[in-house]
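I'll show a record.
***
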Amino acid sequence: MKLAVLFSGGKDSMLAAWLAKKEGYELSCLVSMASKNKESFMFHTPSINKVKSQAKVMNLPLILQETAGVKEEELADLEKALLEAKKKYGIEGVVTGAVESVYQSSRVQKICNKLELECFNPLWQKGQVEILQDLIREGFDVVVVGVFAYPLNESFLGRKIDKKFILEMLDLYGRFKISPAGEGGEFESFVLNCPLFERGLVVSKFEDFGEGNSWRRELEVSDE
C-alpha cells in the first residue's frame, strides 16, 4: 500500500514512517505543513522549512503546503495537500506520528475518511520512554530545536536524544511532570539521520530565539 507521511521533520513522524516501512508499506511522498502561526494547534513549526533537506536524503517527493495556521481552518489546507498527494502519487493511506493528541488524530482521521484514505498511527498510545528508547535502538540522530515549558531553557537547544537525555527527562517528569517525549508540547525535535536517510545531515549554522522557558533554534543543514 502506498502511503504519504504527514511529516514535520521531528522524531515522531520520522519514527512512524520508519515503522510503516518496516511493516512493508511503500512510502510514496512526504506532506508537510508550513504554518505561519507558531502556536498552531495541529502542526510542528520549528525548522519546518528544513524538511526539504530531509526529503532530499530520503529520496522522496515533498508536498510543502503553507497554512495561516488558524484553528480548524488549517485543516482545509491539510486536506488540499493530501488530495494533491492522492492525485499525483496515488497514495492509498497516510501515516502519522500521533501519540496522545486526540485533537490531532481525530481531525486527520476525518480528512482521511473524506478522501477515502487509510490512516495509520504506529505510535498511538505508545509509552513515551519506549518511543525515546526506540529512537536510540533504531539508530536515529535527533536534536532538540524548541523548548516551551519550565524548567526547560536555552541550554536544551541542540541536545541529542540519547540515554543521558532520557534519564534527565525522567528526572524532570518526577519533579515537574514534564512529558519525557514532549507530548505536552514541552519540546520539539529535528532528525539529522535515521535508517530512512541515504546519508546524514549536519548542522552548518544555527540561530537561537526566545527568552525564559520558550526558545527555538533555526537550523541550517547540509548533506554529509
Q: What stands out?
A: The two ends are 32 Å apart (CA to CA). The domain at 2-120 is CATH 3.40.50.620 (Rossmann fold). The longest helix spans residues 74-89.
